[in-house]
Write a structure and sequence with these properties.
This protein has seven helices and no strands. With about 140 residues, it is mostly helical. The protein has one domain. InterPro entries: Na/H_Antiport_NhaC-like_C (IPR018461). Pfam families: Na_H_antiporter.
Length: about 140
């Protein structure tokens, strides 16, 4: 829920830093109250903090009113909404992996290190087997 809330706030406001500033004190304090024995290093607190940060970055990356999105489309000289549409599949893929292999297992008590390894393996597999090479890209070996 924290990931979804952070993503929504960041998408709506266009700022990841503002989202982090708003949601971190609220959600981390709540997570400490939910698990007083775990403390700041407890699994619930770590998962909540990670969800705030990841959701804020996700929402900011997808937001058409984000300063980074506007500036990157202007710097490249491409249509702004086209830039937003082309970034969506990448951001959504990482968000799904983040929630499915990070947040949900953390709630179930899986070690954060195992979640991190599962996420790296999943994203590497997605890039390797689903990704397509850029036909305009010239590798350094082709230049030789």
């Amino acid at each position: 829920m924290v990931f979804a809330l952070a993503g929504f706030v960041a998408f709506s406001t266009g700022t990841s830093w503002g989202t982090m500033a708003i949601l971190t004190p609220l959600s981390v304090t709540l997570s400490l109250d939910l698990d007083p024995s775990g403390g700041p290093g407890g699994a619930i607190c770590l998962a909540t903090t990670g969800s705030v940060l990841a959701g804020a970055i996700f929402g900011d990356h997808c937001s058409p009113i984000s300063d980074t999105t506007v500036l990157s489309s202007r710097a490249c000289g491409c249509d702004h909404l086209q830039h937003v549409r082309t970034q969506m599949p990448y951001a959504l893929t990482v968000a799904v992996v983040c929630v499915v292999l990070g947040s949900i297992p953390a709630v179930l008590g899986v070690s954060p290190w195992i979640c991190l390894i599962m996420g790296i393996v999943a994203l590497t597999g997605i890039v390797r087997f689903v990704g397509k090479p850029d036909s305009d890209f010239e590798s350094p070996t082709e230049r030789l």
